[in-house]
């Protein structure tokens, strides 16, 4: 305790020393600042207390933000196919999420509109793809760990130079990337050709789009699905049409046995005969073994024992 300290300061200092939480310490420091000695010999003390108060307050705010991010992340269950939208503020990330999925994010002209991850589902030919829009990548609220574990990154830009601002944040991400050049409705045909030529020269996997007009969104949806390296396999019961609404989603080079086990564990042991129609068959309704390798959009008919 400093010389010539009054009773109020001494009491506040005592509360600070006995405080068990950062919040309690902050309250005590505030009281110490109000009651600390004003004479010249206490100048160093005043500076020390103000510095301690500032650092503690910053630490409390940082911890709050970390807890919020952790809580949000804990509430997101990763689906079989997950793509995460990333980009700088005002690049059109939220508009893209709204165009691709059933989500209704807040879309505004001011910076940092997205404060937390927003989830939507892209229904592409019966395939349910989880799409997550994240806060602007330069924002401290952006969860880089989610970006690092996503299957596919959708990198949204409105200028090619923005890629160099974004890439340093992706040093720990080795997943598939699709560069999405947004807002092409603001460009003329010559500008579009130049942008495509630039992106092709860099050998990027890219798509130029407009969320406003819908230009090239169907092609983008196909690119997103293809990025997961999966195939769609349709099943049918004997004498009935194929179920095109709910395909089996399997890794490429999967076999008939893999498809059967995807339906439920042990199902392959119940199969007596399998017939297939589609890209991997030599002719419609071909009889194949459990080792037969499937291709995208095959139709499989199982006959059980």
Question: What's the number of helices?
Answer: 9
Main sheet makeup: 6 strands, mixed
Query: What strand line-up does the widest sheet have?
Result: 2-3-1-4-5-6
Helix/strand/pairing category? alpha/beta
Estimate percent helicity.
25-40%
**What do we call the CATH topology of the largest domain?**
Rossmann fold
Outline the low-pLDDT stretches.
none
Rg estimate, integer Å: 29 Å
CATH architecture of the largest domain: 3-Layer(aba) Sandwich
Report the order of strands and helices: HHHEHEEHEHEHEHEEHEEE
| Overall number of domains | 3
* CATH homologous superfamily heading of the largest domain: P-loop containing nucleotide triphosphate hydrolases
Oligomer: single chain
Strand and helix layout:
Blueprint: H1 7-18, H2 22-35, H3 43-74, E1 82-87, H4 93-100, E2 118-124, E3 127-133, H5 144-149, E4 152-157, H6 162-166, E5 176-181, H7 189-201, E6 206-208, H8 217-226, E7 230-236, E8 248-251, H9 256-263, E9 271-277, E10 286-288, E11 298-304
Parallel strand pairs: 1-3, 1-4, 4-5, 5-6, 7-11
Antiparallel strand pairs: 2-3, 7-8, 9-10, 9-11
């Amino acid at each position: 305790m400093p010389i010539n300290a009054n009773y109020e300061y001494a009491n506040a200092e005592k509360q600070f020393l006995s405080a068990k939480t950062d919040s309690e310490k902050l309250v005590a420091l505030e009281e110490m600042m109000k009651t600390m000695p004003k004479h010249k010999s206490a100048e160093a003390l005043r500076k020390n207390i103000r510095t301690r108060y500032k650092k503690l307050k910053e630490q409390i705010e940082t911890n709050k933000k970390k807890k919020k991010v952790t809580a949000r992340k804990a509430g997101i269950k990763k689906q079989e196919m997950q793509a995460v939208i990333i980009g700088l503020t005002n690049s059109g990330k939220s508009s893209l999420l709204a165009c691709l999925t059933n989500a209704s994010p807040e879309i505004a002209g001011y910076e940092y509109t997205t404060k937390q991850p927003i989830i939507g589902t892209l229904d592409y030919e019966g395939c349910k793809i989880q799409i997550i829009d994240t806060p602007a990548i330069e924002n401290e609220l952006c969860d880089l760990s989610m970006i690092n574990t996503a299957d596919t990154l959708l990198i949204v830009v409105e200028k090619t130079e923005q890629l160099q601002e974004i890439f340093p944040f992706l040093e720990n991400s080795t997943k598939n990337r699709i560069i999405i050049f947004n807002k092409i409705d603001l460009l003329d045909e010559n500008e579009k050709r130049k942008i495509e030529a630039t992106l092709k020269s860099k050998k990027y996997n890219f798509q130029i789009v407009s969320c406003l007009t819908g230009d090239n969104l169907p092609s983008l949806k196909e690119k997103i699905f293809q990025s997961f390296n999966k195939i769609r396999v349709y099943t049918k019961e004997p004498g009935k049409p194929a179920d095109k609404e709910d395909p089996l989603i399997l890794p490429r080079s999967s076999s008939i046995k893999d498809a059967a086990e995807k339906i439920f564990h042990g199902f392959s042991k119940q199969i007596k005969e399998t017939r297939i129609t589609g890209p991997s068959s030599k002719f419609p309704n071909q009889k194949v073994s459990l080792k037969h390798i499937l291709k995208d959009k095959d139709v499989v008919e199982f006959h059980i024992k």
